[in-house]
């Protein structure tokens, strides 16, 4: 039997709290989503003033980062480079702001953020990931 690390609800809340601190520091109203390694939602926080569609976008960014074990920026850069086939990959949201939670080369899940410009979303997501050392 193989054992592996897994995110807990407390981990997800810790990630979201750290991301929210970064967002508030910059006066950005965003939605923060934390998913497990299968891309399933563990925790969602939509800050006051964050547009409603950001909830769906944050989840999809997190899901993409978890399932493909890479930042969603990678897919955005592929598109910018003319690799339009990325659009046909199932489950890919090619917009910066999804960060995988990697510990010891193992993907535990991901954090996705939506609500401001994509690089700012990623900045917030990285702050969340750092809360657990990912």
Looking at how many chains there are and whether they match, the oligomeric state comes to single chain
The number of helical elements comes to 4
Q: How many domains, in number, for the residues?
A: 1
Helix content: 40-55%
Superfamily (CATH H level) name = Haem-degrading domain
Average pLDDT across residues?
96
Q: Briefly note the CATH topology name.
A: Beta-Lactamase
| Beta-strand fraction estimate | 15-25%
Q: Termini, distance in Å?
A: 25 Å
Content-based structural category: alpha+beta
Name given to the CATH architecture: 2-Layer Sandwich
Can you count the beta strands? 4
Compute the gyration radius: what is it? 14 Å
**Which CATH top level class fits?**
Alpha Beta
Main sheet overview: 4 strands, antiparallel
């Amino acid at each position: 039997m193989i054992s592996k690390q897994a995110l807990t609800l407390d981990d997800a809340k810790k990630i979201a709290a750290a991301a929210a601190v970064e967002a508030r520091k910059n006066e950005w109203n965003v939605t923060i989503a934390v998913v497990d390694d299968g891309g399933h939602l563990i925790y969602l926080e939509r800050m006051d003033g964050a547009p409603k569609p950001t909830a769906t976008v944050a989840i999809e960014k997190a899901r993409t980062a978890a399932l493909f074990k890479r930042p969603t920026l990678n897919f955005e850069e592929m598109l910018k480079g003319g690799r339009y086939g990325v659009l046909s990959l199932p489950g890919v949201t090619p917009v910066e702001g999804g960060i995988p939670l990697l510990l010891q080369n193992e993907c535990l899940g991901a954090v996705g953020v939506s609500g401001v410009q994509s690089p700012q979303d990623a900045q917030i997501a990285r702050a969340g990931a750092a809360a657990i050392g990912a």
